[in-house]
Amino acid sequence: MKKKQSKKKSQIKKKKNYSDKTAFANLEKTSNNITTPKRASSGIPKYVADRMARRIFFTAGIPTILGMSVFVVSYIIVTRNIAEIPPSSTIAISALFFLLGLAGLSFGILSASWDKEPGSFFGIENIPMNIQRAKAAFKPATQNFDDKS
After folding, report:
1. Is the pLDDT of residue 23 over 90?
2. Is the torsion defined by CA of 29, 31, 32, 36 positive or negative?
3. Distance of CA 59 to CAs 23, 50, 120, Å?
4. For residue 23, is it within any domain?
5. Is 95:63 a contact under the CB 8 Å cutoff?
6. Using an 8 Å Cβ cutoff, are 104 and 60 in contact?
7. Which residue, 11, 24, 130, 134, is the most exposed by fewest CB within 10 angstroms?
8. Is residue 13 situated within a structural domain?
């Protein structure tokens, strides 16, 4: 008995061998034609973002580091028999520092000045204006348009 020949053999076409130059030449031609238009950014300017980052580092970063160091200091005090610290007070003090860091995160964002020149040291006068900006950002686009006209 003879086996049937598959149809694949008759359908196989001879593949063309391209050199590296011709294979990648078409690719380079198509990729050079694509240009992305630059959009006007409506986000946070870089100088404002840098100012926010500095404020966040001090107002949120330092309390968060202190919140983590409470565990280390508590461990050292307990293992060296300096004092007997209940675990609940360690957790409570650490949670207090973490909450202070969370409040510092919000303060760091809301107190940053959007002017080119930096504002005051604490930036408390910028908080109401930045809260209004945040509220306006979450409104639908039609409401923002209606408020301006």
Report:
1. no
2. positive
3. 56, 14, 15
4. no
5. no
6. yes
7. 11
8. no
